[in-house]
Amino acid sequence: MQTFFLSYVNSIPDRVPILDAILEGMESSKTDRIVTSVVSKVEVTWVAHEKLNRILNKEEEARIDAIWNNSELVEMVDFNDEIALAARKLMREGMARGWKLKTNDAIHLASAQWVGAMELQTYDKDDMPRFSQLLGLTICEPHVIQPKLF
Amino acid sequence: MPKDTLTFVLEGEVTLSSYAAAMAEFNALLNNLGKEVGGDAGIDWVVDELFAGSAVATFHGLYEDVKVVETVVDTYEVVGDALANGREIPYSEPVRRNAWNLTSLLNGKITSLRFETPAREFIVSSKSKIGEKAMPMKYSLGTVKGTIQTLTMRRKLSFTIWDTLFDKPVNCYLKEGEEERMRYAWGKRAVVTGRIGRQSESGRPIVIREVKDIHILENAEPGSYKRARGVLPWSQGDEKPEDILRRMRNA
User: Fold this and answer.
1) Mind telling me how many Å the CA of A51 is from chain B's nearest CA?
2) pTM over 0.80
3) How many whole angstroms separate alpha carbon B239 and alpha carbon B173?
4) If you compute the radius of gyration of chain A from its CA atoms, what whole number of angstroms results?
């Protein structure tokens, strides 16, 4: 999901129309939310620092926080014990199949599973989608949308 | 503050007939506990709160000597503890029968029972029916976000937050002197930090003890998220965010 948010803060031209449509739909919905791990907050900033080769200033941070602080739009999921155990299990099961899974990938997948998300939307086509069957969770590129997307 | 309230919860799909049967057995359990440890005290158990999301019912005991009510609440914990942990209930046959009859309500549709007091909580699942120890609740520091719906300061210092993620009520207990934290909180969306008790199987928050912080959330202006668009401009030929992220995660 972080690639979703990063694509939005990057305003990538061929992605913005679909992201805008998703965000507008979610904000106006009474029942649906984008759910993401609290880890996303750190990762978005981490990638921003890498891209800019400097730390974000206060105004830039405040603009990014405008997404995280909109509770009509985004629900943050704490990293908790159940998610930690599920992430560990995913890493173990992935390894048995010869699939690599990095810690943060595992946390995002386990968080989506824990909240019972309908879909996990990401632009990451490499490592995460093959876990779809293992999790019973659709992993796909952002599109407009069904309830409770992660 | 007297410990004179207790809560009984049925989790799952609760029909009217199963709820009625549960309440009849629960009433009998409290009456028999009162007879056994309260010297046949005729305690009136008055409904304090009812929630439908799970069938949550909280009662407070009315009797001239509050110590008698507190003793019954303590024994209610003992019954919950014994059921949750597959132990013998250390009371009379009628009390044991009432308690075991309650566990017979675990029929697949009703998935668990919860015995809760201002001090402790016990979850009884179907494993208890066959004498197995149920998975204990897990406790960790954390946060729950939701809407604050009920504040109680008369008989217990507590409030209920309606958890946004699971769409269920979570009872939150405050210590005496902390009630000021709740001023102006009713009906607001908030993040509550504390020691969270979670159901083992699902990880769903059930209760928050030792509340550390209550952060009231401001309503975001509609469309305010748009301020984030383009804060880190991307140009043709730049590395895509998924490539930066992958490179960094793999480093």
Assistant:
1) 8
2) no
3) 49
4) 15
Q: Which of B 208-227 lie inside 8 A of A, CB atoms?
A: 217-220, 222-227
The ipTM is: 0.85
* Tokens found for residue B23: 């309440």
Contact A11 B142 (CB under 8 A): no
Of the partner residues A33, A71, A123, the one whose CB lies closest to the CB of residue B242: A123
- The verdict on B242 touching A (C-beta cutoff 8 Å) is yes
Q: What is the pLDDT of residue A133?
A: 87
Which residue does chain B place closest to A68, by CA atoms?
Answer: B225
CA distance B5 to chain A (A): 30
